[in-house]
Amino acid sequence: xxxxxxxxxxxxxxxxxxxxxxxxxxxxxxxxxxxxxxxxxxxxxxxxxxxxxxxxxxxxxxxxxxxxxxxxxxxxxxxxxxxxxxxxxxxxxxxxxxxxxxxxxxxxxxxxxxxxxxxxxxxxxxxxxxxxxxxxxxxxxxxxxxxxxxxxxxxxxxxxxxxxxxxxxxxxxxxxxxxxxxxxxxxxxxxxxxxxxxxxxxxxxxxxxxxxxxxxxxxxxxxxxxxxxxxxxxxxxxxxxxxxxxxxxxxxxxxxxxxxxxxxxxxxxxxxxxxxxxxxxxxxxxxxxxxxxxxxxxxxxxxxxxxxxxxxxxxxxxxxxxxxxxxxxxxxxxxxxxxxxxxxxxxxxxxxxxxxxxxxxxxxxxxxxxxxxxxxxxxxxxxxxxxxxxxxxxxxxxxxxxxxxxxxxxxxxxxxxxxxxxxxxxxxxxxxxxxxxxxxxxxxxxxxxxxxxxxxxxxxxxxxxxxxxxxxxxxxxxxxxxxxxxxxxxxxxxxxxxxxxxxxxxxxxxxxxxxxxxxxxxxxxxxxxxxxxxxxxxxxxxxxxxxxxxxxxxxxxxxxxxxxxxxxxxxxxxxxxxxxxxxxxxxxxxxxxxxxxxxxxxxxxxxxxxxxxxxxxxxxxxxxxxxxxxxxxxxxxxxxxxxxxxxxxxxxx
Length: 653
Prior knowledge:
The protein folds into 2 domains: 5-360, no CATH class; 376-638, 3-Layer(aba) Sandwich (Rossmann fold). The protein is elongated and about 90 Å long. The protein has helices at 5-22, 33-55, 61-90, 93-107, 111-116, 135-157, 160-184, 186-191, 197-208, 215-235, 248-260, 266-269, 271-278, 280-296, 303-328, 340-360, 370-376, 425-428, 431-440, 468-483, 496-501, 505-518, 535-544, 560-573, 584-587, 614-624, 628-637, and strands at residues 408-411, 417-423, 443-449, 489-493, 521-524, 579-581, 589-590, 593-594. It is mainly α and 653 residues long. A hairpin with a 2-residue loop joins strand 7 and strand 8.
């Protein structure tokens, strides 16, 4: 199939949109549509390769696969090797182990399945996934596996006309599935082939229905197609259901550009577009890991570093295109041709071996100093497995659903005053807090918490309804209703920001009203600060590189929903004489001054979701004990008997 300058230029448009989106430049909040454009191009080119070779009787499926390997694998394997080598020196053990897993998934072309099971593409946590962008390569590779087999089978079984109709039907089915799934299962719709294949088939059908257009009409089609793509890139955002029916717009734009066949266009045929188009694959491979480095060091808002990173991405893309991609070609420009087996197999074997060792070794934690391990030992969640109470059946499959999530006690186990801590992981992360408070004023607290199970009387839930966590949640809520009146006080805690964002706060209001009737005292814990980055990781990286840690430079845009929910809970508490709301300032402070870090400049927070660590919870308890709110709570919880209870029974933090 002959080289098409216009398609090469369209590649440039696609990769530029993706790069601008990932680096947050020029308002391209919908730049992720560049991947959809790539899918259309891929479908067109693969169909052209298959049919043109069939016409010459030179097409074989093994040779098709080998050509795809030669095109895709060497540059990808080199990026993986580079990251693994550099990661030894710069990555924390957890990050390094995750990188090993991502490398294996990427080189096996199943990374879309790997990331499908983790955070969504647009979620903040995705910024720690070094090879997230390879999900699209995996989708394309899965398309390459079945598509030539399908075409060969159709050519033998039905006529050319019926082949086209079959592809039309398959594309229509995939598009319908994409529209439906984008609303019901958005993460699945984004990452999986069945909801993406229609985009590649759109390109296939352009080849199978060739058009002949005049010069003026062709120019109009090209400009219209590019305009549609750019408008979509500016108008769409991470809040757009994708790939829903709106994905048809950039796909249609790409179809118009390809069908116009404007090989001499100044827009797609100029030297810059041709350069970026030729290097687009390597540029795509390198730009995301470089973007992650910015997030890794908290530099994503520093425009000097952002521009430097963009320039570095372009340079790395050119070097990879020239020396790595070129080495795998039949007639390389700067390196002698090597046998396909060594070009493809060598880097893959090396990368897979190193990635496997890294993953199995949990990122080699022994690389860290003893002081590092000692300082960060308590910057973890209070899991049941480590002696606390948070019953996370989603994280630990060995935990049973049901009564096993009950019966975990905190504080003074022999005390007469008995309280209940109830909620999701944001209740679980307060286990060390209530253990400290309970021992200081002689209270026993039963802790009942599991994944996403915020306090509510309804069946609403912020997690996946098909998971084990939901079953445990229903069990926990039944326990709450049946046993609430047996407790002297009850403490409710939850990821209020997520509950507020999903418009499920009414369930919280209802359970608080019920608890206020049945219990002498109800405590509402605040949702801690949500940062836009994982501040615990940022702190650990400051230790690793012996740099100063300044939490004030990290943005808190994601905290808006949590603050709004906290305000609603504060207002709710004011409506009841026996409901106390513990505000953030009473828990997270240094000598009464609100702070996001402790006296030792260590963050209370554990991650970007707002969880606090075991250490943070203990320090919050220490800060709370010095507040006037503590005295009010102690007096109400003990029925005015605080003065009769020995103080400072707790030894430690």
